[in-house]
Design goal:
Radius of gyration: 49 Å
Structural class: alpha+beta
Largest sheet: 5 strands, mixed
Strand content: 5-15%
Number of strands: 26
Helix content: 40-55%
Number of helices: 55
Strand order of the largest sheet: 8-7-6-9-12
Length: about 1450
């Protein structure tokens, strides 16, 4: 609201979009000049004819401050609010500096206005063409100001704050009014003068008027020229303005510039200080850089980082754990809980009566308690406990100190940590459950006295919570929300009513049936208590005198419409009891224990799995698994594979209890519920009670136990497999650096020359060489086209002379790498090259190394950041060299990508990634703390810095912060004291990490004298594994070993004696003479400290600080190298497997081939053909692909030789219907005949397709279109035949179906009569005919006739054999459907057949096939066919018995005649 005497501008239309920024500079300029606002005349219009001349009175009013500026309105709330909005707009837009008054008089439009017009129109403007009104600084009257532009700019702030879009007609009127003013300018001059004189100012003389006219004309001319320079602005229609508005907005983007002169200057620096990185970076980028608030909290807390995380620190989704801390009071229960779950071996050895360490079970519990206290109360990590507190987790007996029994291993410490986390989670849930019980405000002695003391697992907590919710559901729903008298009244928000689920139990519990349930004599919790105490019955049944049905009739509703029979009421009463028993947490806990001990696993294939899981499928091992104990499944991956197969709908998994175990459990529950009375009523009630027990077991307990067992086994197997993968990782990284010679110091790292030519293509891949020095830094890399040209060889030798590598590493992506290795070895060994011998010999070992890390590194972002200019092969070589120097550093640098490396080929993918990361992280932590980390090198070397997060107590965030702090102090530490004095580490983190952070000492350096308080004094103990809390012990041991007194070293640095003993050549002897046992006893008696292992550690460190305790570097085995270069594994390349191989060359009768993986194969003359040959070219040709059976594998990696011995003899291969070309052209062109078999030979491929493939396809289609053909599996056809004969007993039936094991074959299944079994005969399809055994049939009707004739003859043979007759000549030498004697049993393939679909007819005559040998008849030694695999249900032996046996005493000839008549009278359908 304006005060009296203030003049405000009248309300005007919206601002011009293109003129919004003009006033901003003007206002600023005025502010700097006078600090006053501009005068706005009350009657000013847009028309130039309305412009009046300012007189001296107006100037006087201006000088006197008659017009009030915005300064005087600061106290008004609305003005303040608008000012804040403008300040926010101005936050990211700053106007340029003010322009002096003299310069402003020469400008009509602001610089920004002109720039905006030039940008939008593409036309340049002269900056001195347009002028605008500015307040004069002297006594002269101001220039005329009458345009609407001026009015808009100086309008009130209410208008400026209006963000609405300008109306179209308003924008057009701006230009229309200006044009109209120009046209009427000359006509209205006199009118303007009269108006101005009438406004009360002093009269103007003629000269003044003439001067004013001249100025006006000049102003108008300048405006015309300005518009003429921008023709686009003339005559713009409404559509054009719409487009301008859509593109450039409404001009309010410059409102930030319209800030009053009185506003406080914007402090840009303060704004920068207030800005957070959350305002700049994306949340995903913040998480990636570990800059979230949780990350800051993890860095700040004095708790080891890994203990603050819910998952592995390697995980990209690692989050802060919000657990509650364990207290000293929790340790007792935690120790017993954890000890019982450590391992079955621990329970057996320590807690069984006959266990070898049963006398130490108390010591074991104390050791577990100590470990839990360190881990969860004092917050020390596992490496610290294992290194510095091992005496507390082993049996320490002062009386017999030499007998030191290890109570806990390193792996068991990690197990205790994992179990402790589970226990902590369990007590948190238990606390929440007890809080819920307290809120129910009920008193239940069963819950408080019996259930709560036995809550020892998360499952029991969940069961108890569910049980309480069921039993006290009404109390839980009616529990009011706490509301206090001083709470503010909140508006009641109507929520959508959610559907409530009401179970049958709840309905029945509220009905009269609940009274009937009480008639059973015991409540559910009383039954459970009886069950849990079988030796002493706690509750007895209150027997009813009435029979159950009679008793139930009392509860029948008197309303006939609602009445239920007594049996139904009893069923409902049983449901109440069975539900309460089935939900009881103690009973469910008992069934879980039974399942854990006695459960059996069975698997059945689904309909889909029956056909898909064949004998070569990876799931075949458990296709018909039956009743396998779960204990046998905990140490293999089979169960996880079963779960995967089940998810693929191939099998059905069932978890059951043995019948005797289930019966025992059910009997015990019956005994806890039954009555001891002998009356009829009691017996009748016991029957009802047994029905309740049966319902409880079958409907509640068994399903709940099976569900829990499924998750229990899955969890255990995943943990087991993750541990196995971690073991493989430890074998890789827990090794010392490679030493070229045994005399090389273990502290020295070898320099490496890595060589690779990628895939080994001589036309594409050059030979890449990279030299990496002892510090892991790449010093040189080069590429050579080959190692044959003299110039290339000389360059190779030059690198060897200059760099002198300790070892040469060879790597690659194909078996051609063998040739590269052989060539390098020949060159450095002085072998012949280029026709002349090389006289220079280099004693440099050449070897292979595991390249899985290098393969990942070459394409990683880390490699691109470090060596962006190098090729992928060069980066691969760097990875090889670094792995040779430190496998630990390479694996640590992988981060979360470490799971991409497969340590268990078949099983690793079954384990969740988070579990793998946790297992791998623990292994990396163990080995890193064994080796230690040089903190100064870690600060300076980003690659070596990857080890720092795995130091005890640290993690990625704390390591990052530590490096930054050390860098701010100069990047170098002198002693470990600086970690605390420089506030680099908090107290607890320092205690965890101190002994594992090395501060290396310069060789020969000695501590200065009398500088105890100098922070910059080095200490030799800082380069040892000795913890700072044990420094005094180390100095005492060194003093005693040197036989010095305290007076001898009084003036020396406290660690001077340590330097002396370390440099003493006889330090081993001197330190070994110390009696550490007595020293440990004295420490125990004096301070109760157990330091026996610590004293051993100190002695070892004084002898050799940070000595190498890891195994020697493990080079890859022959199979590792073969897999690395070819991809073959022992499963894909094994003896007896049939593989495809291509002929490379022949030499006499020897054939040299190449497998698909690139490995070389060789076929010796005796394995080339079954018949004698004079030349290998008679059976094979160069470039031809032939099948071969693997006979032997000859791998000699040292000699770069890997050969596979093969056999291509048809008798070994069983090639089947393979098409071969005897004289194949290696170029791939067909030059000879194509042979399918001896009866089918074709001139070219077209003839083969037309006359063989298409002909067979037509015959298959013809047979499949026949009415006797049945789609679907063979079992469905069998079922159809049986159903048909059941409906037509006097008939016989047959049908065709596909043989799904042999392409191009069908099965003819038939059922002779309802008493016989379904029999199957093979039908082979050929281009020219169908073949039933050896009988050809040109069509399907002929095939059916051939079957009927053959069956007639077969049945006659059976009759003749039963009558003692002779088998007719030509009828075949075998009894139909009898397995042959001798030969290969179908399905029992020889070792050569592994990996191929078995041919059930290969090597064995099929059922009913023609054979030259006689076969036993059903009455003489018949043997049923053997099943191929133990899990398959054997088929019944085919039976050809006649409908009736020959009666005793009947003439056999008469019997034969009868049988013949029966056979001829059969009617095949």
């Amino acid at each position: 609201m304006a005060s009296s005497g203030q003049i405000h501008a009248p309300h005007v239309e919206e601002d011009d979009p293109m003129l919004g920024s003009g006033q901003e500079d003007d206002g600023e300029g005025d502010a700097e000049g006078e600090g006053e606002g501009d005068v706005i005349m009350p009657d000013v219009t847009d028309d130039s004819s309305e412009e009046g001349e300012d007189d001296e009175e107006e100037a006087r009013k201006i000088r006197e401050g008659f017009i009030v500026d915005e300064d005087e309105e600061d106290e008004e709330a609305d003005e303040e609010e608008r000012r804040k909005r403008r300040k926010r707009r101005k936050k990211h837009h700053r106007k340029r500096g003010a322009i002096t008054a003299g310069d402003e008089e020469d400008e009509g439009l602001e610089e920004e206005d002109l720039e905006l017009l030039e940008e939008n129109t593409g036309t340049s403007f002269k900056r001195d063409r347009l002028t605008r009104l500015h307040r004069r600084r002297d006594s002269e009257s101001p220039a005329a100001s009458s345009s609407k532009r001026r009015v808009v700019v100086e309008s009130s702030e209410d208008d400026l704050d209006n963000d609405g879009l300008p109306r179209l007609e308003d924008i057009q009127r701006i230009w229309d009014d200006e044009r109209r003013g120009e046209e009427d300018d000359d006509e209205m001059d006199d009118f303007i003068e009269d108006d101005e004189e009438e406004e009360g100012g002093p009269p103007l003389d003629e000269r003044a008027r003439e001067e004013r006219r001249r100025e006006k004309k000049q102003e108008q001319q300048r405006r015309k020229r300005a518009r003429g320079a921008v023709p686009e602005l003339a005559g713009i229609d409404a559509n054009a303005w719409d487009e301008i508005h859509d593109v450039f907005g409404d001009g309010h983007e410059y409102d930030w510039a319209l800030e009053g002169d009185e506003e406080v200057p914007y402090d840009e620096e303060q704004d920068k200080l207030d800005m957070k990185y959350q305002d700049v970076f994306e949340p995903s980028e913040i998480r990636k850089r570990m800059l979230t608030e949780d990350d800051d909290l993890i860095r700040a807390q004095d708790i080891p980082e890994r203990m603050q995380l819910a998952t592995s620190s390697l995980s990209l989704s690692a989050s802060l754990s919000l657990h509650t801390q364990l207290t000293e009071a929790d340790l007792g229960g935690a120790a017993m809980w954890v000890t019982q779950r450590l391992s079955s071996r621990k329970n057996r050895d320590f807690f069984s009566e006959d266990g070898p360490y049963s006398h130490l079970k108390g010591a074991l519990v104390m050791a577990v308690t100590f470990a839990l206290r360190c881990l969860f109360v004092e917050e020390f990590e596992v490496p610290y406990i294992w290194t510095h507190k091992r005496d507390y987790i082993r049996h320490f007996d002062v009386q017999d100190i030499r007998s030191r029994q290890e109570l806990l291993s390193l792996n068991e410490l990690w197990r205790i940590y994992a179990l402790g986390q589970k226990y902590r989670s369990m007590i948190e849930r238990r606390g929440a459950m007890m809080s819920m019980y307290q809120r129910l405000d009920v008193q239940d002695s069963y819950v408080e006295d019996d259930i709560f003391p036995q809550v020892d697992s998360v499952e029991v907590v969940a069961d108890c919570t569910e049980w309480l919710s069921m039993k006290y559901k009404d109390q839980k729903q009616s529990e009011p929300d706490p509301h206090f008298h001083d709470d503010e009244e909140t508006e009641i928000i109507k929520k959508r009513k959610m559907p409530s689920r009401v179970s049958n139990y709840e309905i029945l519990k509220k009905s009269i049936v609940s009274k009937l349930a009480e008639g059973f004599g015991l409540q559910s919790h009383q039954i459970v208590l009886n069950f849990l105490s079988p030796d002493q019955r706690l509750h007895f049944v209150d027997d009813q005198e009435l029979n159950p049905l009679v008793f139930a009739e009392q509860f029948i509703d008197p309303d006939p419409l609602k009445a239920q029979p007594a049996e139904e009421l009893l069923r409902r009463a049983r449901l109440i009891l069975s539900t309460e028993l089935g939900k009881d947490p103690l009973l469910r806990n008992q069934i879980r224990k039974v399942f854990q001990e006695e459960a059996r696993i069975s698997v059945e294939p689904t309909e889909r799995g029956v056909t898909k899981i064949d004998e070569h499928h990876r799931y075949f091992t458990f296709k018909y698994l039956q009743n396998k104990p779960i204990r046998e499944m905990l140490d293999s991956s089979q169960f996880l594979n079963i779960l995967v197969a089940e998810s693929e709908l191939l099998v059905t998994l069932s978890i059951t209890l043995p019948s005797e175990v289930k019966s025992m459990f059910e009997r015990r529950l019956n005994e806890a519920f039954a009555s001891d009375s002998f009356s009829d009523a009691a017996r009748a009630w016991n029957e009802e009670r047994s029905r309740v027990v049966h319902e409880v077991v079958e409907q509640h307990l068994i399903p709940a136990g099976a569900k829990w067992t499924r998750e229990y086994i899955r969890e255990e197997v995943e943990d087991f497999l993750a541990g196995q993968c971690a073991i493989h990782l430890r074998k890789r990284i827990d090794v010392a650096a490679f030493r070229a010679v045994e005399t090389q110091s273990s502290d020295l790292v070898s320099s490496v020359l890595a060589i690779s030519w990628g895939k080994g293509d001589p036309h594409k891949d050059a030979i890449t060489m990279v030299f990496v020095d002892e510090e892991g830094r790449m010093r040189e890399h080069t590429k050579l086209d080959n190692l044959y040209d003299h110039e290339m060889v000389d360059e190779f030798f030059d690198i060897l002379r200059r760099r002198k590598p300790n070892v040469i590493v060879i790597g690659g992506f194909s078996v051609a790498t063998f040739k590269l290795s052989s060539l390098v070895k020949k060159l450095i060994g002085g072998g012949a090259h280029g026709g002349q011998n090389n006289q220079e010999i280099f004693d440099i070992p050449v070897t292979y190394v595991h390249d899985d890390v290098a393969r990942i590194y070459q394409h990683s972002k880390r490699a691109n950041d470090e060596f962006s200019a190098l090729s992928p092969t060069a980066k691969y070589c760097i990875g090889l060299a670094r792995y040779m120097q430190s496998p630990l550093n390479e694996y640590a640098a992988l981060g979360s990508d470490i799971t991409a490396i497969t340590f268990e080929d078949d099983d690793q993918h079954l384990v969740p990634k988070e579990k793998l990361l946790s297992a791998f992280e623990r292994t990396l932590v163990d080995v890193t703390n064994i080796v230690g980390v040089d903190i100064n090198r870690a600060v300076a070397d980003p690659y070596y810095q990857h080890l720092l997060p795995f130091v005890c107590g640290l993690g990625p965030r704390k390591a990052q912060a530590l490096v930054k702090k050390i860098g701010s102090l100069g990047g170098n530490l002198v002693n470990r004291d600086q970690f605390i004095k420089g506030s680099l580490l908090t107290t607890k983190i320092f205690l965890n990490a101190a002994s594992f952070l090395r501060i290396t000492q310069d060789p020969g350096s000695r501590p200065s004298k009398n500088r105890h308080d100098d922070e910059m004094v080095s200490d030799p103990l800082d380069d040892t594994r000795i913890h700072p809390e044990d420094y005094e012990l180390a100095r005492k041991m060194a003093t005693d070993a040197l036989e010095l007194d305290e007076e001898d070293v009084h003036d020396e640095h406290p660690s001077h004696v340590v330097t002396t003993i370390i440099n003493d050549r006889d330090n081993v002897k001197k330190l070994s003479e110390l009696n550490l046992d007595e020293f440990a006893i004295s420490l125990y008696e004096a301070n109760n400290d157990q330091k026996r292992h610590t004293l051993n550690l100190i002695r070892d460190e004084l002898i050799k600080p940070y000595s190498e305790s890891r195994d020697k570097f493990r080079l890859p085995t022959s199979w590792d190298v073969v897999t690395m270069l070819s991809g073959e594994t022992p499963k894909t390349l094994r003896i007896g497997l049939i593989v495809s191989t291509q002929v490379v060359r022949t030499k006499g009768l020897t054939v040299f081939t190449r497998l698909d993986s690139g490995l070389e194969g060789i076929i010796t003359p005796e394995y080339l053909s079954d018949s004698p040959l004079s030349n290998a070219a008679d059976v094979v040709a160069k470039g031809q692909t032939i099948p071969g059976v693997i006979l032997d594998l000859k791998f000699d990696v040292e000699q770069d030789s890997c050969t596979v011995e093969l056999s291509s003899r048809p008798s070994d291969v069983h090639a089947g219907d393979d098409v071969t070309e005897p004289n194949a052209d290696p170029t791939g062109q067909t030059t000879g005949q194509l042979i399918v078999d001896s009866a089918h030979t074709y001139a070219d491929l077209d003839e083969l397709i037309v006359n063989h493939v298409q002909a067979m396809a037509r015959r298959c289609e013809e047979l499949m279109a026949h009415e006797k053909f049945k789609h679907g599996p063979e079992d469905e056809l069998h079922l159809f035949l049986k159903n048909f004969l059941a409906a037509n007993p006097a008939k016989s039936m047959y049908g065709f179906t596909l043989n799904r094991k042999r392409p191009g074959h069908f099965n003819l299944c038939f059922l002779a009569n309802k008493n016989s079994a379904v029999q199957t005969w093979p039908v082979r399809v050929a281009p020219e005919a169908y073949y039933l055994f050896d009988a050809a049939a040109v069509g399907v009707p002929e095939l059916c006739d051939a079957f009927k004739v053959r069956h007639l003859h077969e049945s006659q043979n059976v009759v003749n054999a039963a009558a003692g007759g002779k088998t007719p000549f030509g009828a075949g030498g075998r009894t139909p459907a009898r397995p042959q004697t001798g030969g290969a049993t179908p399905g029992r393939m020889s070792v050569r057949q592994v990996g191929r679909t078995p041919n059930p007819y290969s090597g064995a005559t099929p059922y009913n096939a023609i054979s030259g040998t006689s076969a036993p008849t059903p009455g003489t030694g018949y043997m049923p066919p053997q099943t191929p695999y133990g899990y398959q249900t054997p088929h019944r032996p085919p039976s050809f018995q006649p409908p009736s046996q020959v009666p005793p005493g009947m003439n056999p000839a008469r019997a034969a005649m009868i049988q013949q008549g029966w056979s001829q009278g059969q009617s095949w359908r």
